[in-house]
Amino acid sequence: MRVWYPVEWILAWIVVLCFAVKYLLDAAYHYLAMRNLQSFPNRWCRVVPLTTIPQTRQRLVPQEALTQLVELLRRQLPQQQQQQQQQQQLPDNKDQENNNKENGTNGNEKQEPETTTTPTTPTMANDDDDETTKKEEQRKFDDIFFSDDFIVSTMSTNLEARRLASMAMIPHFDPRCMTPQASFLQFQFQPHESALLKQLQRLWPQLLQLMGIPTTTTYKYDLSVIVPAYLENPISLLITLTTAWKHCAHNLDPSRTPLKIQVILVNAGLCGDDDRSLSETLVGHFCKTNTTKKEDAAKGDENETKDKTTYDKWSDFQILEYRQGGGRGGCMNFGAQHAQGRILTFLHSDVLLPENWDTMIVQTLRSDDDQNNSNNKKSSSSSTVNLCAFGMGIDDSPHRGLKGERYPPGLQAAAWQGRLRSNVCQLPYGDSVLSVRASAFDFVGGYPPNQPLMEDFALVQLFRQRAGLFPKEEPLAILPANIACSPRRWQQTNVPYVALANWTLLHKYHYQGATAEELYELYYGRPIRSTTALTTTTTTTSNNKEKTL
Description:
By secondary structure, this protein is α/β, with parallel strands linked by helices. It has helices at about 5-35, 60-75, 80-90, 95-100, 120-140, 150-155, 160-170, 180-185, 190-210, 235-245, 250, 275-285, 325-335, 355-365, 410-425, 440-445, 455-470, 490, 495-510, 515-525, and strands at about 225-230, 260-265, 285-295, 305-310, 315-320, 345, 350, 385-390, 435, 475-480, 485, 535-540, 545-549. It is built from 20 helices and 13 strands. Helix 2 runs antiparallel to helix 7. It is globular and about 85 Å long.
């Protein structure tokens, strides 16, 4: 084994350096492409979507997405606009009243039909009725017109509309449309659909700016830490959360004011012997329950007790049970739905946070717009960071990181490549602890739904494109500290294999348009578990709730 150690070390550095050059070339191409795109706003709708788009087998083609978008917009039409469309489709009542006045009859009175000498054949009358009906049905679609203000207001409040518009406008690789150009050339759109496409293309720069409008939402916590867990040891989760607590800024410097931090652990299953052991290990460590007597003066009952939960460390701590499948992205979306923090931090269960991590995240994602939420316009001079991440690092300590097992040759080369990819190429992965403003996360729809793999790349790539398009308004930030990631995946195989696997998945997903299901089957060697709605138990520190998802 020792004979092959230097060979494996040299091979690891060669593979890492080759992929590092590839990452640098892709970053340079991305920078030049986005800078060139700034001069052509009419092309933004073909490159930068409004939301994350699931690259799965169930993704809609542009024609299907546009048809559903038209139906959604028709349902969202205000009553006033529906009345205007009805007036366009039906005969004008004013003209009818004028004709009645000329004939000397009242509009409420029935007018006797005039007798004509020329008889009308029944077949001709039926043909005229059929033609009239067809014209009215055709006119229902041809006369559909949505005002610019209505589309902008609907897109600002309706996530489904934003996602359908993104799938309709962004070309993609699909067996039904083999090239991006064929996405629009192969399908034959209805006249009203073509008009809506042109309208969305014209409004797309304005729609992209909707994310920057301050919201009036009030948040209960400064930060919500979401930890997805599957097949994890409760002791490892305890170490991750305890390290995060010890490295909070107010614990290192007692003069600082502690932040309100909420921790949500999403248990996807098989963490410990059973879910009860996980709850007892974590909840018992971070929280304590005080039993107090509650006296009812009306009934004179002094034996009734009330349990009050207090938090020794975090402002709030919850364990949510998630059984819907769909990979880590669905797990984190589920946790984000229950989060009440202004900032969402997604912490993987095998990652240790650096010192002062909470202060760095809050100060980086805090903007001037947070203090001026009364103005519903985005300031042109303000700079808002929507996403930040830490630099890459690997925990190579003998006991905590390596856990007494072998040290993979070239492990520091993998850490160096991760820092190069995140710090220089602005492409951090999920293990770099992504932190997103809650308003921006809700606007883009979170992680792509029902996508079992590459969910972190899809989210980062969207914010990376926006940062390239608006470099001064929405920059991407890499924090000046490194996390400590567990080396277990490099210990299971080796450094060259992990680097090659990561690049292969990225190349097939981003450049060849492979679906997430295909990548999952390629990486894990088994088909993905079907996503079914199951009854999950939401375990909190205060009460137990059962929810059907």
